[in-house]
Structure formats: C-alpha cells, structure tokens
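Researcher: Predict the fold of ABC transporter substrate-binding protein.
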Amino acid sequence: MYKKSIIASLMALAATSSFAATSCGKVEIADMNWNSASLMANIDKFILTNGYGCDAELIPGDTMPTSTSMAEKGQPDIAPELWTNAVEALINRGVEDGTLSVAGKSLSDGGEEGFWVPKYMVDENPELATISGIKKYAKDFPSSEDPSVSAFYGCPAGWACQITGGNLFKAMNLEEAGFELIDPGSSAGLSGSLSRAYEREESWFGYYWAPTAILGKYDMVKVDFESGVDAEHYKGCISEESCMDPQVTMFPPSPVYTVTTANFKKSNPEAYQYTTQRSLTNDQMNMLLAWMEDNQADGQYAAENFMFTYPEIWSKWVNKDVKAKIDNALDSL
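Model: Structure tokens for ABC transporter substrate-binding protein follow.
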C-alpha cells in the first residue's frame, strides 16, 4: 500500500510538473490598426491558442500607447509587429529595466522604402533600374498634366516621407533632370496613380514602401541610387526638414520587431521561443496583403487562410509536436 501510494504521488507530481511546463495561461496580443500587424496578431492568436494551449486574446493597440503600456504596466504581453524606430528609446529603456524583451524580427527585411518603377519598363530598358538611367531617360516619364515635364510621385503632404523624399529629390538633382515633384494628395491618390499606370502599362516613377498590398499586386523595381546606405546622414539630415545639404543615400530599412514583456518570456519560454522564430519577408507579406485587399478580408480571415495555404512557411516556426496540434485544429475548422 505504501509503495503504491508513493508511485501514485510521483505520477501526480509528474503530471503537475508537466502541466506547469506546458501551461500557457492568458496572453494578451496587441492588434494594431494596420493590416500587416493585424494579420500577424491573428496568426499569433491561432498558433498560441492551438499549438501552445494559451488563452490568447486580441486587444486594440497602436505603436506608442502599446509599447508604453507594456513597459509600464506589463500589458499586453505581445506586440507582434512593432516599428521600433518610433519608440527606440522607450524599448531600449524597457529592455535595460528588465520589463521588455525584443523577440524576433516580424519582418525579416525590415520596413522598406524606395523610389520605384514598373518592371515592364526595366525589362525594356535595364538602365531604368538605376537613378542615373532614370535621369538619362527622364522624358520617358511625362506628366499626365504637362507632358513637357517628367513626373515623380512623392509622399502626401504631412507624411514623414514627404521630408525624406523631398530631400532625396533635391540631393539627386531630379528637378534639373526635368522632373516635377508631384504631391498625390493622399495615400489613395498615390496608390491610385501607380495602379492606373500599371494597368495601362504606362510609365510611373515615385516613392512607395513595403510591405503593402500594392507591391504585392504589381511587379515593381526599386531604383538603385548607386550610393549605398548612409544611415547616419539619413537620420541626421535627410529625415530633417532643416537639412541644408542633402546627400544621396538609399533608405535604410526600418527595424520591425516582435516585442514581449519580460514576464511573458519568463513564464512561457516555449511560446516565447515561437515569437523569436515567427517572421515573414516583405515579398511574403506583400502577397498576403494583396490577398486581403482583393478578398476584403479582416485579420482573422486572412490568418486562417494563411494557416491553411502556407504550411511550408509557418511550420518552420514551430516544432513537430506543436505543428501536429495546429494541424488538428485546422482539420476541425
């Protein structure tokens, strides 16, 4: 009897220890108010719920309030897609204070900015892949309003990229080459100008960024400024409205990370490990965003479609046991 009691106690202890090691508990995930971040949040919710047994919940979020709340209040537990340039000092302070942890790159390429031309133009004239070629063939980009000048579509007024794009326009002497800097008026105006040109196979040259649905739909080439990246000059001058002597530099990538609370990392090491592995390239995210737009899908619907359609991507983020649990969950949908 005594021996059986010991065995029973050991089995109960082993079961309790196993539960403690695998139990995840409640996890709050910030659902940011742009499509790529909402998609990432919903993917995390699905995988953490079905693969790791978490009680995952999405809560509304945005860059500054979410990162501040995580650092000061320990809530939410995860910010799946945080563009850290805007909150770099806050994140660094949180890591130093032991309240935050930077997990993995949610966008492995980082946020991408550049000046772009349609691939069909580059296929016809490969020189258009470089800024020297763009300037040489400036007349190939006539403005629809005034064909005597060439059109460069910049950022809408009030956007930060209006400053950086304007300074680079000046640094590359594009006005002297015959280009006019056009304010598209809005994000819709900018994307609309690109869409119209592409659908008609007309010329287009302008600023755009990734990941975006537009660059998922249309095959565009980022123009090489033939300068490399000077991150220090970009930060100290190109990004400043008062920049007096702008020099040519490619846009440095914007770091985009998954950030968690230090408590989540400590309490859920296996789930935290997943957040260090989960990452998408810009090409992958562009494709997913284009699908979202074409199907008018919200983050949840897009996440479920992603899980069904691209197991070759997400299966690399988890181990075999977790994958089996997720496969079972997908079979039940």
